[in-house]
Amino acid sequence: MISFLGKCIQNLYLSTRYLLSARTRFSTVLAQAAAISYDSLIISLVIVFVSAAVIAIQVSKQFLMTGAEAYVGGSIAIVMIREIAPGFVALAIGARAGTAISAEIANMQVTSQVDAIKTLKIDPVGYYFSPRILASAITVPMVVLIAELVGILGGLVVSYFTIGLHPSRYMNSVWLWLSTRDIYISLFKAFVFGILISLVCATQGYETQGGAKEVGVSTTKAAVLSTVYMLVADFIINIIFYL
């Protein structure tokens, strides 16, 4: 794990240097943004909406029994924005787009396409990594922002149909509990998660050696490693901003 982390840091440095040299094409970044975040938008929103609905079902009746139904909206909004939306969206994108990144680069590695890039005196790490890292760093926060809105609205709908909570009372609680600081922190989390998804999965694919079997093994490892690194990053960010 420590050795792999060192490789990730080294690849991030090389990618950043390549990116600052202005050799990354906008069309490539745009294509990667569509593949990473746009194609994962629907599944991400569905996951967050269902999560918000489940939370609303769990807490609405309990709050109603204690006379605290006015706090349902604020509770759901805080949970959605601080943890559920950035975490679940990142996991969904990592499972869908991260594994695809790993498989694509691993296939290039085992079929000697990476060696061909080296013969052209092009840095393969910067060439392959930088557009993916930039695209995910920009677009994952966008998906998270949309998911937060969908999650809050999902909680509103379920609360209305389960305990008859009026939408105005729900939204009033959201405005009272929610702060712009929480939104900024959630977007910062999404930014970090986006970088980790592309960096970890691309690094795992780049380190692949062997044949087709190793490509599958590498893809599985990429999914596991990206999840672990995101959870650790989430823990560290929460300690820094909320402890």
Question: Would you write up a description of this structure?
Answer:
The chain has one domain. The protein starts with a helix and ends with a helix. It is built from 9 helices and no strands. The chain is elongated and about 70 Å long. It is mainly α. It has helices at 2-20, 26-36, 41-65, 72-110, 113-119, 124-163, 167-177, 180-206, 212-242. Helix 4 (72-110) packs across helix 7 (167-177).
Straight-line N-to-C gap: 27 Å
| Approximate helicity band | over 70%
Find the structural class using helix and strand composition: mainly alpha
Proportion of residues in β-strands: under 5%
Rg (CA only): 20 Å
Low-confidence stretches: none
According to DSSP, the number of beta strands is 0
Total domain modules: 1
Task: Please work out how many helical segments DSSP would assign.
Answer: 9
Oligomer: single chain
State the shape.
elongated
User: Overall pLDDT, averaged?
Assistant: 90
List the helices and strands and how they pair.
Layout: H1 2-20, H2 26-36, H3 41-65, H4 72-110, H5 113-119, H6 124-163, H7 167-177, H8 180-206, H9 212-242
Summary, kept brief:
It is built from nine helices and no strands. With 243 residues, the chain is mainly α. 43% of the residues are buried.
Primary descriptors:
single chain, about 240 residues, mainly alpha, 9 helices
